[in-house]
Structures are given as structure tokens and as C-alpha cells.
Amino acid sequence: MAICEMVKLNIYALKKDRKDVLETVQFLNVLHIEEFDDFKELEKEKKDFPVSFFKRTISDLESAVLIVEKFCKEKKSELSIASKPRMISFEDYKSFSKKQEFILKKAREILVTNKLLKEEKDKILNTKLQIEALCPLASLNIPLSLKKTRYTRIFIGSFPQTFKEDEFFELIKKKISEKTPVHFQILSANKECTLVFLICLIKDESVVLNNLVSCGFSKISFYEDVLSVKKIAEFKENIENSNTKIEFYIKKIRDFSNYFEDFLMMIDFLAIRSQKYDVIGKIFQTKEVFILSGYTTKNDFLKLKRALSSKFDIFIQNKCVERDDTSAPTVLKNLEFASFVEPIVESYGLPNRKEVDPTFIMSFFYYLFFGIMLSDAVYGFLIFLGCFIALKKIKNAKPELKKNLKMFCVCGLSTIFWGILFGSYFGDFVSVLSKNFFNKEVHIEPLWLDPIKYPMKILTLSLMLGIIHMFTGLGIKLYSFLKQGKIVDAICDVLSWYFLIGGLILFGLSTQLVCGILAIKPCVSKEVADIAKFVALLGATIILFFSGRGSKNFIVRLCKGLYELYSTTSYLSDILSYSRLLALGLATGVISSVFNLLASMTSSVPYVGFLLFIVIFLMSHVLNIGINLLGAYVHTNRLQFVEFFGKFYEGGGKAFKVFKPNSKYHIVS
Fold first, then answer.
1. What value does the mean pLDDT of the chain take?
2. Residues 628, 587: contact at Cβ < 8 Å?
3. Is 418 or 77 the better-scoring residue by pLDDT?
4. How far apart are CA 232 and CA 220, in angstroms?
5. Where are the beta strands (DSSP E) in 321-443?
6. Is the pLDDT reported for residue 228 higher than 80?
7. Alpha-carbon Rg of the chain, whole angstroms?
8. Residue 65's closest CA among 106, 121, 122?
């Protein structure tokens, strides 16, 4: 509806009050901070260290929260998406600074405890691997470190292939002389390796070892003078000790759940402080004074001035921003009904301060088109009910989420309206249910007409709404030119297209060809058609000779005019683009009817027929509403962004980024 008037201001305050002034401004949520070049010769104070410290500390706190959440299942709900941010007073927020050191100490204790817990778990894993390695040696009743006796040499090692006893015996006979006595025992064998125990005389050590190595033998050395059985028992005892420690650490972490809420509050407390210090690093200052510059809306200026003047010694230098000053941020101001679609406009790009805010006008078309595309009364009711309940449940939701939910509430009401006009209630569900299960068909007649029976009438309606939508966009452009006193631009760039497109439409409605396609009777008389041809020719002439009026060369101007006339085809394609209103509206109804037909095929199944009908019905319609809801949303946006905004919208407005406390788990009031 309008773009808010802005005030550009510089706040001069004593440096000793800097943190308190910034905190006051932060919690007022009204100032967009900007660095003006007027003070570029002054210095800024670097605050990289405090900001980085806060970020590291917040990261540690979040890690502590996740650790507590992991071991205390009941805490998960407190971090879920559905959980509501807690409301706290500004006094409670301020007083929380006294707990800061204590809470940070507890968070560090959690991190240390969790580190010790992980170390014990790693110990258990490594010990189990060692036990697994020693198990094949458990049958050896000798110390692991024993390498030789008085007359013999002992080898324990592995081969990279699988051997059976007879195969290994043949290998020994082949590689080592039969006169060389060798005793062996296969301790274990699998697809990857074979573990063996061998004994030979000391005098044959080099011969035996060299021949075994040539076959891939790899010797394993042990350094502990204990039996493998005893070592395994020792390892198992270590695992039990580690498990005891793990239980102790887990219990200790669970005891910290009493501080869970304090951890969440500390995350928000430090995040808000970090934002304040981030701003401190951007403001200009002298030895005794600092300057806070930025923009606020005209309505919020007095609120800001009163709040600061009542607490601090300050001086505020301010001036109203001119409408054509595009360096100032854009703030939209609309009636509540239209404000719900502001996020849609912002996602495309804010209008610059020189142009008209299209939100109010766009909102009517947005709700209208969404309802036609979805066009099922029950679907609309479910959307409205779901969003309405969400609004009631999530009371402290962010403004953007609230606007989106309210927008879909209105879209749901529009869908209900068009669903009643088209007689669609889960498609033809009432008719199918009554016919197949009650042997008496009940049909709810549409209040206006059935799109499936009369698609051409809906197509005519769609194209008519498209023409109105596009001409409204051109009307906004015309209004902008007239407001800026650009009379020639208004005639040559807007009225000329009204003449050309409007004349062609009226002439088309007088012909049998166009009216036959639209399934209507010619509704324009020959006299009006002749006038329409003249008006269209006038519009084409203006476009041809005056679209390139910026060029002094007549040939160049004429070429630009011809190129601009070619845009007539884009207007035709834009008008035809509105046939998607018919396409998506029909898709919802037809797909619903198909799903109802599939579900009704279970009516002949004895005993469980009705139950199967309900299951198939619910699953198919959940899928249908999901797909068509997405389609209606996407294509409604497309009609606004391409066909509507393309006729007048420049965009390029700067977002109003208010300096405010951005917290995750709490809302400070």
C-alpha cells in the first residue's frame, strides 16, 4: 500500500555510556545501523577478539547442550522445532550476567567429562581388538614373550593365505628338508590369513625362517612375559573398569540436566552480547564521544528519541529522507490483510523508494489465483484449520512465520470459496461414497459450474482475470509516471499498450474464430470492433515512432519501435500463461476423482472393503493435497513475479535490517 517515510539520524553520546546506549537501541528494535561517509575520517574500535570469543563460547555451550540432550532423552522436546521460545523479562536477562562464570564452568565440566567418556569407549574398542588378536593364542600354554629355549627357536606369525594342516605340512616338506625337524600348529585360519606356531632347533633357525619368509611368513613379536589366557583375563578386567567409569561419567552428565535451561539462556545471552560488540566495531568514535548512525521509520523516531533522552546525555541529528533517495532502506506498510504477502514481495526484491509498493494490490490477485488453482472446499478447510491451529500453538513464532501461516489461512478461505463454486469436496467423494456403500448416489451440485464439464468457461474466466491482472500492472506503471510528472512516458510507454492490446482484444471478441475457441458468442458489435481496430492502430503507431524517442537518429528510433512492437507476442504469451489457472484447478479435481475411483474398487471386498477404501482414500488425498498445494503456491508466485511485476516493477530496494537481539531459545520482552 505504501513505503514508510524514513528518518536519517546520527546519535552522539558519551563513550562511557556506549554499551548501555547500544543495549537500549538493540532492545527497541527500531534502528537500521549504517556507516555514513560523513565520519570516515574518525576511527573505529576493533572488536574482533570479543566477538570471536563469544562465538567460541557459544559453540562450546551448544556442544554441552547436545551432550546433555544425548543422555537425557526427556530434554529432546525442549530443543524440537515445535517447542516454543520462552518469554523472559529484560530484568531477568540483565540479571543472568551474574551467573555467567558459574554456567560456563558447568559447560566446560560437561565437555571434559564427555571427553573422558569417549576416551574410555576408545579404550574398550582397542582392548576388544587386542582380545580378538590374542584369542587364537589362548591354546598355547607358554608366555607370549618366549622366543627360545635352550635348544629350540620359537616363531609365531602369519601367512597371507589360508592353509589347512595337510597343505601346510606339504609346504614345510617342500621348502624345508625332511631332515630338518620342525613342529608346527595352526592356531587360526580365515580367508585373509593363517596364524601358525612353529618350533625348530636353534641351529636350523636361519634356514627355517628364510624359507618361511619366502612363502610370505610375517613374524609377530610379543613383549609381555605372561600367558595369553592371563592377558585376555586382564583385558576383560580393564573393559569392566572402563564400563564402570563410563556409567559414572554418564550419571555425572545427567546430573548436569538441572542446568539445561541455564545453558540455553547463556547461549542467547552471549549471542545478544556478540551482536552488540559486532556493532561496536563498526561505529565511529573519538576519545570521549561515539556516533551511532542509521535509519528509522518516522513513526519510530520519537520512540527512539524518548527512550535515549530519558537515560543518557545525547544529541540526535536527524532529517527526513527524500522519496527519491534510494540509499535508504525500504520498509513496507500495509493493512494486515495485505501484509501477509509481504514475504512474497520481499523474496522477489523490495521496491525501491521511488516506486509504488505493489503488495496491497497483489494480495487480492494472490489469494484469488491460489483459490482457483487448488479449488477444493475440503482441501481449503484443512489448510485453514492447520495454519489456524499452528498460529494458536506457536504463540512466540517469528514474524515471518506468522505472516506465512496467516497468508495460507486466507489462501485456505479462498480455496473453500472456489471449491464451493465448483462443487468439489475431496473431488466427487460424496457421490462415490454414497453410491458404492449406501446404494444411493448423493451429488452436491456446484454453486456455479463444474470445471470438468465446462472447461472452456473456466478458460475464458482465467484469461479474463489474466488480462485484468496485467492491465492492473500497467496501471501501476501509469500511476508512477503521472506521479513523477512524466506525461510523455505515460502516453508512449503505457497508454499506447492499453490502446494496442485492448483494441486487439475487443476486435478479437467480435470475430467468430476467437469466440469459437472461447466457447462464447461474439459480444462486440461491428461498430465497436471498427473503433477497436483504430485504437489498436493508434497504439501501434505511438509505439513504433515514440518507443525509441531517446535516439536522435530516425532509423535507429524506427528500429527500436519495431522491436518494441514485437513485444506484442510476449503479451499474447503472458495472457495465455493464465490458462494455468484452469490447468491446475482441473488437475486437483480430476486427480481427486481418479483416487476416489481407485478407492471405490475395494467396495466389493467382503468385510474389509470399507476399511481398505478409507486407507486408500486417506493416503491418496494426502499425496494429492501435497502436490497441488505446492503447485498452487509455485504457480501463483510465478504469475505475480513474471506476468504482473514484469509490467512495472523495478525493485532494488535495500532491506531494513533492524539492530535487534537475535536469540534462539528465548524472547526478551
1. 90
2. yes
3. 418
4. 17
5. 329-330, 332-333
6. no
7. 40
8. 106
CA distance 137 to 185: 11
- Identify the band that residue 398 occupies on the pLDDT scale cut at 50, 70 and 90: confident
Q: What are the C-alpha distances in Å from 494 to residues 465, 479, 488, 491?
A: 19, 10, 10, 6
Assess whether pLDDT exceeds 50 at residue 262. Answer: yes
Give helix then strand counts, H and E, for the chain: 25, 16
Type of residue at 635:
H
Residue 542's pLDDT is what? 95
CATH of 146-221, one of 3.40.50.2300, 3.40.50.261, 3.30.70.2750, 3.20.20.70: 3.30.70.2750
For the chain, domain boundaries: 146-221
Residues with Cβ within 8 Å of 376's Cβ and at least 6 positions away in sequence, in order, are 415, 419, 424, 425, 426, 427, 588, 589, 592
- Separation of first and last alpha carbons in the chain: 30
Does pLDDT of 82 surpass 60?
A: no
What 8-state DSSP symbol labels residue 8? Answer: E
As a whole number of angstroms, the longest Cα–Cα distance in the chain is 129
φ/ψ of residue 320, rounded to 5: -70, 140
Rounded average pLDDT over 81-93: 75
Per the DSSP assignment, residues forming a β-bridge with 332 are 3
User: Out of 337-341, 460-464, 600-604, which region has the weakest mean confidence (pLDDT)?
Assistant: 600-604
CB 379 within 8 A of CB 20: no
How deeply is 442 buried, as exposed, middle or buried, from its count of CB atoms within 10 A (0-12, 13-18, 19+)?
exposed
Q: Judge whether residue 81 has pLDDT over 50.
A: no
pTM for the model stands at: 0.83
pLDDT tens, residue by residue, 553-578: 888 899 999 999 998 999 999 999 99
| Listed residue (322, 293, 316) closest to 303, CA to CA | 316
Contact 137, 187 (CB under 8 A): yes
CA distances from 480 to 55, 483, 528, 566, 649 (A): 47, 5, 30, 25, 10
CA 534, 537, 539, 541 dihedral sign is: negative
Contact 447, 421 (CB under 8 A): yes
State the amino acid at position 347 in one-letter form. Answer: S
Pair type for strands 152-159 and 194-201: antiparallel
List of residues 6+ apart from 218 with CB closer than 8 A: 157, 158, 159, 160
The rounded distance, in Å, linking the Cα atoms of 70 and 493 is 64
